[in-house]
């Protein structure tokens, strides 16, 4: 009896690992970063595009921070299921736009993590000031 239950537990553990490995990253839903910002993404459409909203917890402004719309696209998922993506956020409280690019990773337990980089462009009064408009 003991060996049967041990084999059953081992089989269930292996099936759980296979199920987690077969799953693919899904961008849809609520995401939070380590700074306290929140992002909500819609489901991908047939073309791989999505929309959503971003509520940043950090900003270089004295204005009230508002939830801002975003638009993006995901690369077709590879067999590994850890796709790349990009999106832009049109900030509703500042004269700037941020472009994010990244990849969704899934660990062996099925936990999804988005690794991203961003580039922010703010409006400046003249082309002469363009050098200081991008971070």
Automatic annotation (TrEMBL):
Stored SUPFAM superfamilies: Avidin/streptavidin (SSF50876)
Subcellular location: Secreted
Disulphide connectivity of cysteines: 25-104
Gene Ontology cellular-component annotations: extracellular region
InterPro entries, per database record: Avidin, Avidin-like_sf, Avidin/str, Avidin/Streptavidin-rel
GO molecular function: biotin binding
Entry keyword Secreted: yes
Residues spanning the signal sequence: 1-22
Pfam families linked to this entry: Avidin
UniProtKB keywords: Biotin, Disulfide bond, Glycoprotein, Secreted, Signal
Entry keyword Acetylation: no
Coiled-coil ranges (or none): none
PANTHER family the UniProt entry points to: AVID PROTEIN-RELATED, AVIDIN-RELATED
Oligomer and partners: Homotetramer.
Described function: Forms a strong non-covalent specific complex with biotin.
Protein name, as recorded: Avidin
Organism the protein comes from: Aptenodytes patagonicus (King penguin)
Gene name tied to this protein: AVD_3
């Amino acid at each position: 009896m003991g060996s049967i239950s041990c084999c059953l537990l081992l089989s269930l553990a292996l099936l759980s690992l296979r199920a987690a490995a077969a799953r693919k990253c899904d961008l849809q839903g609520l995401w939070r970063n380590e700074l306290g910002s929140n992002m909500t993404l819609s489901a991908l459409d047939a073309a791989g595009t999505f929309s959503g909203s971003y509520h940043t917890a950090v900003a270089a402004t004295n204005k009230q921070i508002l939830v801002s719309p975003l638009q993006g696209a995901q690369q077709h998922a590879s067999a590994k299921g850890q796709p790349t993506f990009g999106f832009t956020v049109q900030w509703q409280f500042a004269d700037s736009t941020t472009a994010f690019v990244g990849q969704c990773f899934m660990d062996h337990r099925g936990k999804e993590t988005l690794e991203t980089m961003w580039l922010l462009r703010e409006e400046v009064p003249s082309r002469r000031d363009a050098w200081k408009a991008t971070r």
